Amino acid sequence: MKLGIILQSNNPEHVWNAFRLGITALKAGNQASVFLLSEGSELDTIIDTTNFDISVKVAEFKALKGELLVCGTCIKMRHHEENAVCPISTMADLLAMIETSDKVVTF
């Protein structure tokens, strides 16, 4: 199965759970992609806390070969630039993720 995850939140608990789901899917032998949209494009600014080790989850997701993309328009609106976390993408890339995924969930 190919799982598409659309992450529109910068709430640490939402982000943490989205990546936990992606990691679980990858460990079960599935494919998983996360597309950061809206406030989700702020992923690189979210600070780890005692309860939510987001940087650890993102690193594990990427190590398991999960695909991570960020909306270029969303990141530019926030005056951010492309970073080491993930490449800038487009709505066409989001559409392609949706079209090729067996299931799509939104956080």
TrEMBL record:
> A Pfam family this protein belongs to?
DsrE
Q: Which domain of life is it from?
A: Bacteria
Name by which UniProt lists this protein: Uncharacterized protein
Q: To which species is this protein native?
A: Candidatus Lloydbacteria bacterium RIFCSPHIGHO2_01_FULL_49_22
Record lineage: Bacteria, Candidatus Lloydiibacteriota
